[in-house]
């Protein structure tokens, strides 16, 4: 979907939420009573979450022979998030992160591979957690039997994606599939990028202990992702059960990752609010949790952005070079 169409969809969904679903003034009143102590705790939680995400990423880079200090990694990660959230750039935060690391002398293909692997493993685990979430919401009565088909479809997707990831590690199988493609297709420039990526992917795939550690830390990261909105709810004085959030958040996050909106804006809020409303939480309170989460994330990332700007003098994000396979 075109970038500006995604922006338009995000704006449309937010407008619809504030026009037809919630009382905007009530949302504002709920946000105004945010407890300062929980505000600080929420910033700490989201910062720890980002440190953990960065550490996982550095493990993948280390498996490829690169060492990125954790402080520098967190600075790069959070800086790219600020640019990805606050600026209407046509490349996302991951692309900006890849450019920033490549400018430090890292091979572009290896960097992009580490980010793609990070996202692929994250997607598989997010899908698995999404299925757990459906099960939780089904068990506690938020969803009924009509959603069982979504559960079966999710299981099929999980098996299919996992099978593809495993199959891609088999060079002979991949070469056989590619060999059946027309010569004109094999000569495409994108196929050369894919070949380079496949080689780097298989190199990472052989580092099984790293992938296992990365996967375990990704599961741990989900704990922070659930504690964060729970902390927000406590700060806003909204009574939300932690088990309910464990059921709602992974599904909301998974759906918001569909490339149909700007950073999931509007999509996440719509799903998050809808599920919480089904569980008996007021729409205004649910939207206040979602909005405060986005605002606090941005404020948690800004200090790292200031560190980068102070060191580099660059206020705007770097642009990808032609050699970097993310254009």
Descriptive overview:
The structure is a single chain. The two termini are 16 Å apart. The chain contains 14 helices and no strands. The radius of gyration is 21 Å and the shape is globular. The chain has one domain. The mean pLDDT is 87. It is 77% helix and 0% strand.
Helix content: over 70%
Task: Supply the number of helical segments.
Answer: 14
Task: Please state the CA-atom Rg, rounded to the nearest Å.
Answer: 21 Å
Q: Strand tally, please?
A: 0
Q: What is the number of independent domains?
A: 1
**Cα distance, first to last residue?**
16 Å
Helix-strand pattern: HHHHHHHHHHHHHH
Poorly predicted regions are none
Which class best fits the helix and strand makeup?
mainly alpha
The fraction of residues in strands falls at: under 5%
> If you average the pLDDT, what whole number results?
87
Q: What can be said about the biggest beta sheet?
A: none
Outline the fold blueprint.
Layout: H1 3-21, H2 24-32, H3 36-63, H4 70-86, H5 93-102, H6 108-139, H7 148-167, H8 171-179, H9 183-186, H10 189-205, H11 208-236, H12 242-256, H13 267-278, H14 283-312
Summarize the structure.
The chain has 327 residues and is mainly alpha-helical.
Structure characteristics:
327 residues, single chain, mainly alpha
């Amino acid at each position: 979907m075109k970038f500006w169409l995604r922006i338009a969809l995000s704006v449309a969904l937010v407008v619809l939420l504030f026009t037809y679903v919630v009382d905007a003034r009530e949302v504002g009143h709920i946000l105004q009573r945010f407890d300062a102590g929980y505000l600080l705790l929420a910033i700490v939680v989201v910062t720890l979450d980002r440190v953990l995400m960065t550490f996982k990423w550095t493990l993948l880079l280390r498996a490829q022979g690169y060492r990125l200090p954790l402080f520098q990694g967190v600075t790069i990660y959070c800086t790219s998030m600020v640019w990805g959230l606050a600026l209407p750039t046509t490349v996302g935060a991951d692309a900006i992160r890849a450019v920033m690391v490549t400018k430090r002398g890292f091979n572009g293909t290896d960097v992009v591979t580490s980010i793609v692997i990070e996202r692929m493993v994250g997607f598989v685990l997010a899908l698995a957690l999404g299925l757990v979430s459906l099960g939780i919401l089904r068990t506690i009565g938020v969803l009924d039997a009509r959603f069982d088909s979504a559960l079966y479809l999710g299981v099929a997707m999980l098996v299919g994606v996992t099978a593809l990831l495993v199959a891609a590690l088999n060079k002979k199988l991949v070469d056989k599939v590619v060999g059946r493609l027309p010569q004109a297709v094999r000569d495409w420039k994108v196929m050369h990028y894919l070949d380079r990526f496949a080689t780097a992917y298989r190199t990472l795939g052989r580092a099984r202990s790293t992938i296992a550690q990365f996967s375990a830390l990704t599961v741990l990261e989900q704990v922070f992702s659930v504690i964060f909105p729970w902390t927000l709810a406590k700060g806003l004085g909204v009574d939300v059960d932690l088990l309910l959030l464990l059921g709602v958040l992974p599904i909301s996050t998974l759906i918001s990752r569909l490339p149909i909106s700007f950073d999931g804006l509007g999509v996440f809020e719509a799903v998050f609010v809808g599920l919480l409303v089904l569980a008996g939480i007021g729409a205004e309170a649910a939207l206040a949790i979602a909005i405060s989460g986005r605002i606090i994330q941005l404020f948690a990332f800004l200090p790292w952005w200031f560190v980068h700007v102070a060191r580099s003098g660059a206020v705007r994000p770097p642009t990808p070079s032609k050699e970097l396979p993310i254009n």
